[in-house]
Design a protein that fits this description.
The chain is α/β, with parallel strands linked by helices and about 220 residues long. It is built from eight helices and eleven strands.
Length: about 220
């Protein structure tokens, strides 16, 4: 899952990026409100973590701009102030959830996963597709009840597919969900991971749609 973090404080951003990546997210960071607006509108993220106290352009203004431009990604507001009036303002501006500083990384992770599940129409942390079960909370997968050992990258791809069964997903879209903007990827990386998932989950689980991408059948 790819997350946009809009946070100007390097220490806080470092903690969040490290914690979210450890939890299996791909994270891109914007340091200013202006950059956050552009990145949020230009790339399709599963969710955003948005600080309110940003320089030049406040987080509320960023959020309002996203919503005016019909950007519907879930937004988790991060703020140093937790007054009820500020929470109401953020929620009324289009935020989906709110967390105050100081925060605990596991809570941020849990809230993001809940937002992403609700956006995809899955209320439960346990995703099921035929004989495959994926617990997005514990990051464990089984096939017909048998545990499957997946690498972090394989888990990211499987999670993305499990949220979108039956949909054709291009190789470029999968690459975006696997790597942050500053990362580089080999041209055949996705094919390698798809091959590994088929070997571990079953040959017919992911179908290649020639010229278009892949689909979880």
């Amino acid at each position: 899952m790819r997350i946009l973090l809009v946070e100007d404080d390097d220490d806080i951003a470092g903690r969040l990026v490290s914690g979210l990546r450890t939890a299996g997210f791909v994270v891109d960071r914007a340091k200013t409100g202006e950059d956050g607006v552009v990145m949020g509108l230009g790339d399709q993220y599963e969710a955003a973590v948005l600080d309110l106290g940003l320089p030049k352009m406040q987080g509320i203004a960023v959020l309002k701009k996203w919503r005016i431009e019909k950007c519907d990604m879930p937004v988790l507001i991060l703020s140093a102030q937790g007054t009820w009036t500020e929470k109401v303002e953020g929620l009324n501006a289009g935020a989906d959830d709110y967390i105050t500083k100081p925060f605990h990384i596991p809570e941020v992770v849990a809230r993001l996963r809940a937002l992403i599940r609700r956006k995809s129409g899955a209320a439960d942390a346990l995703l099921k597709h035929k004989e495959i079960c994926l617990d997005t909370a514990s990051c464990k997968a089984t096939v017909a009840g048998t545990p499957v050992d997946l690498t972090a990258s394989e888990l990211k791809l499987l999670t993305y597919f499990m949220h979108r069964p039956g949909r054709i997903i291009s190789q470029g879209e999968l690459t975006e969900r696997l790597y942050a903007l500053e990362d580089s990827a080999e041209s055949n990386t996705i094919e390698v991971y798809i091959s590994r998932l088929r070997r571990k989950l079953g040959r017919d689980v992911i179908t290649t749609v020639r010229g278009l991408g892949y689909r979880m059948d």
